[in-house]
């Protein structure tokens, strides 16, 4: 082989090796691609794709947060609700009573039903009621409170309400008949006390 051709081949081989080294040392940019088993794939997720992914994640988070806010606290189990109702029903039993010694039914025009608080703490009886056997009903006015150890008189006749006396002013007399049952009911529709007239 002539010496000239051998020299040209040697220079060509050196040039190819130099080119490969330059390509290997060249830094990879964000737009570069690499080949994996013959498939060309981007090294980084495109900016538009990342923006859409972030927007989707934020949307899912907001939906979950809104659902949590709307759901509210878990409902009270029926057994627990029944236990609370039973506890409330017995709260004032034997504490707020109809006082038979104070009550009076002799005067048909102004019968008196005495409601006594035998406890030490004041009891708010707003919207409580008393009713008889046939359904004649008196509602205690808003803000009515019986202090501990005190008695409140309910008159069936006319008068001016005070801290100790309330006036029903019922049009039919007498309101209560003999052997009539008087029931004291609290604002949860629970019977607190019962009394039968003489």
Could you characterize what this model shows?
The strands form four sheets. The chain has a four-stranded mixed sheet with strand order 3-4-9-10, with no helix packed on it. It has a domain at 94-196: Immunoglobulin-like (Sandwich). The radius of gyration is 46 Å and the shape is rod-shaped. It is of the alpha+beta class and 198 residues long. It contains three helices and twelve strands; from the N terminus they run H-E-E-H-H-E-E-E-E-E-E-E-E-E-E.
User: How many beta-strand segments?
Assistant: 12
β-sheet strand percentage? 15-25%
Total of DSSP H or I helical runs spanning 4+ residues: 3
CATH superfamily of the domain at 94-196: Lamin Tail domain
The CATH architecture category of the domain at 94-196 equals Sandwich
Biggest β-sheet description: 4 strands, mixed
Task: Report the uncertain regions.
Answer: 30-41
Backbone shape: rod-shaped
Helices and strands: which structural class? alpha+beta
| Overall CATH class of the domain at 94-196 | Mainly Beta
Order of helices and strands: HEEHHEEEEEEEEEE
End-to-end distance, in Å?
145 Å
Mean pLDDT: 80
By CATH, the topology of the domain at 94-196 is: Immunoglobulin-like
* Helix content class: 25-40%
Task: State the main characteristics.
198 residues, Immunoglobulin-like, 3 helices, four-stranded mixed sheet, four-stranded antiparallel sheet, alpha+beta, single chain, 12 strands
Secondary structure layout:
Blueprint: H1 3-25, E1 33-36, E2 39-42, H2 47-71, H3 78-89, E3 96-98, E4 112-117, E5 123-124, E6 129-131, E7 137-139, E8 145-146, E9 151-155, E10 165-167, E11 181-185, E12 191-196
Parallel strand pairs: 9-10
Antiparallel strand pairs: 1-2, 3-4, 4-9, 5-8, 6-7, 6-11, 11-12
């Amino acid at each position: 082989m002539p010496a000239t051709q051998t020299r040209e081949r040697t220079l060509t081989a050196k040039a190819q090796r130099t080119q490969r080294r330059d390509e290997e040392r060249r830094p990879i940019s964000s737009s570069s691609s690499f080949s994996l088993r013959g498939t060309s794939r981007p090294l980084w997720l495109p900016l538009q794709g990342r923006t859409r992914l972030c927007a989707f994640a934020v949307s899912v988070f907001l939906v979950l947060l809104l659902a949590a806010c709307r759901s509210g606290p878990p409902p009270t189990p029926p057994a627990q609700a029944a236990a609370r109702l039973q506890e409330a029903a017995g709260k004032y039993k034997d504490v707020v009573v109809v006082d038979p010694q104070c009550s009076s039914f002799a005067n048909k025009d102004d019968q008196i039903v005495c409601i006594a608080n035998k406890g030490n703490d004041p009891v708010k009886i707003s919207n409580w009621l008393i009713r008889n056997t046939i359904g004649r009903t008196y509602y205690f006015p808003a803000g009515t409170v019986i202090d501990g150890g005190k008695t409140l008189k309910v008159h069936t006749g006319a008068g001016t309400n005070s801290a100790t006396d309330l006036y029903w002013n019922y049009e039919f007399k007498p309101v209560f008949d003999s052997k009539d049952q008087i029931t004291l009911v609290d604002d949860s529709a629970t019977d607190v006390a019962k009394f039968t007239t003489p």
